[in-house]
Amino acid sequence: MKTLQYKSPSVKGTIKVPGDKSISHRSIMFGAIAEGTTKVTGFLKGDDCLATIDCFRKMGVQITENGDEILIEGKGFSGLKEPEEVLYTGNSGTTTRLLLGILAGRPFHSVVTGDESIAKRPMNRVTDPLREMGARIDGRDDGNLTPLSIRGGALHAFRYELPVASAQLKSALILAGLQSEEDTIIVEPQKTRDHTEKMIRHFGGNIKREGSTITVSGHQSFKAKHVQVPGDISSAAFFLTAAAVTKNSSLLLKKVGINDTRTGIIEVLKQMNADFEVTPVNHDEEPIGEISIKSSKLNACTVDGDLIPKLIDEIPIIALLATQANGKTVIKDAEELKVKETNRIDAVVEELKKLGADIEATDDGMIIQGPTQLTGAETDSRGDHRIGMMLAVASLITNGEVHIKNPECISVSYPEFFEDLESVTS
Ligand code: S3P
Prior knowledge:
InterPro entries: Enolpyruvate_Tfrase_dom (IPR001986), Enolpyruvate_Tfrase_sf (IPR036968), EPSP_synthase (IPR006264), EPSP_synthase_CS (IPR023193), RNA3'P_cycl/enolpyr_Trfase_a/b (IPR013792). The chain is α/β, with parallel strands linked by helices. It has two domains: 2-19 and 231-425, Alpha-beta prism (UDP-n-acetylglucosamine1-carboxyvinyl-transferase, Chain); 21-216, Alpha-beta prism (UDP-n-acetylglucosamine1-carboxyvinyl-transferase, Chain). Helices cover 30% and strands 28% of the residues. It has 13 helices and 24 strands. The strands form six sheets. Strands 3, 4, 5, 14 and 15 form a five-stranded mixed β-sheet that branches. A four-stranded mixed β-sheet has the order 2-16-18-17. A four-stranded mixed β-sheet has the order 6-7-9-8. Helix 3 (93-103) links the parallel strand 6 and strand 7 (109-113). The protein is globular, with a radius of gyration of 21 Å. The model has no long low-confidence stretch (mean pLDDT 97). Residues 22, 93-94, 166-168, 171, 193, 312-313, 336 line the site of shikimate-3-phosphate.
């Protein structure tokens, strides 16, 4: 249990949030399937990404830490060996689903399992199309739930319209497609984060996109590269909110990834009339910027449609922002929240209600009426890192203590979260 109490704090100074989780996972995966030594700087040493490292080590890939750098000795797809042990993916949906795509094309047997949250998350969105491509996969609920057993091998030509906008699903099929005999064609219903596509180009491979159609050719090989992981905008979102909702605040966030498939939170801050500025600082494959933000007088807004995949992980903290915005904020088209680390519609609504928020769940999102003075209460992260961080940020504006059950889960994506929060609050 963590107890937090702040008395009218301000959020001030400069902060550099840890590396992007999605990019960190992919840096290990591409480092492992490339040939040569890949160096990764800015890697997120959170539990999720450490689980990815562990899985690749179990497939014979040498991965070492050298101070702040991670070194991966890649030997191509064919360098991956049949693991002697179960591949344990912890709490990480990205590790589980992307790994399935890689394993689908490998001519060996493996077993993938994760923690109790992963055990409840749907895997058939990935296992069904991978089976159609030619992989043999089995598991509980006819291959929908972990533990999953995979016997990979030759994969054939495949065209698939994704039934849900999911970067994990898209990436799993791309990773299988890279090993296929022929072309793989994937059609996305809405644009989702494109880190896998960018990583392919960075490592010298090719992938085409025309409108919503992605084409990947098979039998690709990659050359080792240096990957510089930008700060995670999904982690930055907690500090952007902390500064916007507290008085006399002024915060500078350095080296944040501002890939436009991830910047939905910036669009929401704009719509809410927040006082902030984004300054791009490079023009690399993965763009990086600085964001400065001050205490803001917020207006309610509507969050829906194509914006949802660009901020899917930020909805818990956007709900908190909305409790401080003037008017009715409506979040819709976000059914996917029900199959995240927790059912995030229920978790956000029930936990924020404990703090006195005026918030109601809907079938595909939530409706929040603001502004509301929040009050202290006993809350529960429910083992979901983003719920835990949202509740910690909420404690900055409650009158009374906020107790958070199971705060340890925050180490999944942000091991130094409480230290960083402490360092910018006064
Ligand atoms: C991720 C994709 C998203 C996101 C998750 C990371 C990725 O999941 O919620 O935190 O790295 O590809 P979905 O693909 O299930 O939407």
